[in-house]
Amino acid sequence: MEYLKIENGIITGHYAGDEPEEGCIPIEGEFWGAVGEPVDWYDERWNRIDDITLIESGKKEMPEGMKFNDTRTDLVPMDEDELIVAGVKPLPIHKKIVDGKLEEKTVREMWLEGSISTEDFAKHKRRERDSLLTSTDKYMISDFPVDEDYRQKIKEYRQILRDITQSAEWPDVEIPQVPANGN
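The structure corresponding to this sequence follows.
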């Protein structure tokens, strides 16, 4: 015969023999459970309830770093982003959580929170500005096929880009995009 000792809802002992120890209860059949587990993890015949059922019923916590698969039939490891969103892994300085999803922070957001310097923010904004100047160089070539009204718009736009670094708000400025060609 097998016997279990239970204290405060936890199985604290498992014994076999003719005479039970004091405070033990007899069980029919064999016990394949584990000492240290709660009694409510077992059914009335002392069969262990599966982990998925226990987790879904709230009797057991989901192990850290795990989740249900799509069909809720198995536990599977979380991917890197899920571990970060769940708070298991730290949030990288260049990421943020939006609506339960991991997203890249903007350079401005990193600057505002102090994770990059004003100098680095200004370098980034200057690269953005320089890239727009480079992308419009072709319009300044006199034989580039574009109407003169649009070429003039681009000249004015390029001057705005050059002047923007002298703005009192630099580098915390919105850099305008290339004007659309009306043709």
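The two ends are 93 Å apart (CA to CA).
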